[in-house]
UniProtKB/TrEMBL annotation:
Residues 7-159 form the MD-2-related lipid-recognition domain. GO terms for cellular component: cytoplasmic side of plasma membrane. GO terms for biological process: ganglioside catabolic process. The keyword Signal applies. This is SAP3 protein. Keywords: Signal. It comes from Ramphastos sulfuratus. InterPro entries: GM2-AP (IPR028996), GM2-AP_sf (IPR036846), ML_dom (IPR003172). Pfam families: E1_DerP2_DerF2 (PF02221). SMART domains: ML. GO terms for molecular function: enzyme activator activity; lipid transporter activity.
């Protein structure tokens, strides 16, 4: 277990969307299992379609960090239209799933400017059919969200996974 959970904003100071706080437990994250997340985000600008998200996912192999490819929309993927993906997951017009609903956190574009916070909430991580080399270990993720070439947000995460 190296390092443990960590996060940071990696965008420029002028990025309109900034992660203020994020905590995740347990550490390492257990799959399947329960994950407790609390977070706060502030946005000085409405995030509207098309929202592009670029993920770079790396896994530690000894002292090396290996970039994982994008396979079946998982891994180091570029999502050109996050808004449409959200609409496909949660049909527009239906209420947002809990705990988002309780805390007034939107689940569809556009995301209005403002501050959003999620008090400590539990999420169930299901058993996922992943090759073992993709589960146990230490990971780094860089996620950047942009619209029309303008970066809106950039966050780096580091975490460990442990599958049962």
């Amino acid at each position: 277990q190296v390092g443990g959970f960590a996060w940071e904003n990696c965008g420029e100071k002028k990025n309109p969307v900034v992660l203020q706080s994020l905590s995740v437990a347990p550490d390492p994250i257990s799959i399947p299992g329960s994950l407790r997340i609390s977070a706060a985000v502030s946005s000085s600008k409405t995030m509207a379609s098309p929202l592009k998200a670029v993920l770079v996912v790396e896994k530690a192999l000894g002292d090396l960090w290996i970039q994982l490819p994008c396979i079946d929309q998982l891994g180091s993927c570029t999502y050109n239209d996050v808004c449409t993906i959200l609409d496909n997951l949660i049909p527009p017009g239906t209420t947002c799933p809990e705990p988002l609903l309780t805390y007034g956190i939107p689940c569809h574009c556009p995301f209005k400017a403002g501050s959003y916070s999620l008090p400590a909430s539990d999420f169930d991580l299901p058993e996922v059919e992943l090759p073992t080399w993709m589960t146990n270990g230490n990971y780094r993720v860089r996620a950047a969200v942009s619209n029309g070439g303008e970066e809106l947000a950039c966050v780096k995460l580091a975490f460990s996974l442990q599958s049962q």
